[in-house]
TrEMBL record:
Residues 120-131 have a biased composition (Basic and acidic residues). Gene3D superfamilies: RNA-binding S4 domain. Residues 10-76 form the RNA-binding S4 domain. This is RNA-binding protein. Belongs to the HSP15 family. One of its GO terms (molecular function) is ribosomal large subunit binding. Residues 109-131 are annotated as: Disordered.
Length: 131
């Protein structure tokens, strides 16, 4: 983590990249532009300055993170260092775990191994012709 000084500004897109929520800074900026990142409940632009204590809401795919900013950094370091920059709320963590479990169960239901058999193919054809 970089020491905080008053001269350096910490943009939200750079901070999200440093905290490893996005693989590139441009992906972070794009997510902000599309309204997937909120600071203290307000939609922001990529150049918005982030401060310690800000509450962020970040939507990535189906998952939503609610985090509190604990430290500031513009440098992308190892994951262990990135995790020191924020703290996720307990409610957010539980909601993500429930959603991950539901997604896992749903994907297992629709999993088929290999190509359909002749019998499966006939059932698929019958199903398609009904619609």
């Amino acid at each position: 983590m970089m020491p905080q000084n008053d001269v350096e500004k910490f943009r939200i897109d750079k901070w999200l990249y440093a905290a490893r929520f996005f693989k590139t800074r441009s992906l972070a900026a794009e997510a902000i532009e599309r309204g997937k990142v909120y600071i203290n409940g307000a939609r922001v632009k990529p150049a918005k300055i982030v401060a310690i204590g800000d509450m962020l809401t970040i939507r990535i795919a189906h998952y939503q993170y609610e985090i509190k900013v604990l430290a500031l950094s513009n440098r992308r370091g190892p994951a262990s260092e990135a995790q020191q920059l924020y703290q996720e709320t307990e409610a957010s963590r539980k909601a993500r775990e429930v959603l991950a479990e539901q997604t896992k169960i749903q994907s297992q239901q629709f999993y088929t191994k290999g190509r359909p058999t002749k019998r499966d193919r006939r059932e698929i054809d019958r199903f398609k012709n009904r619609q």
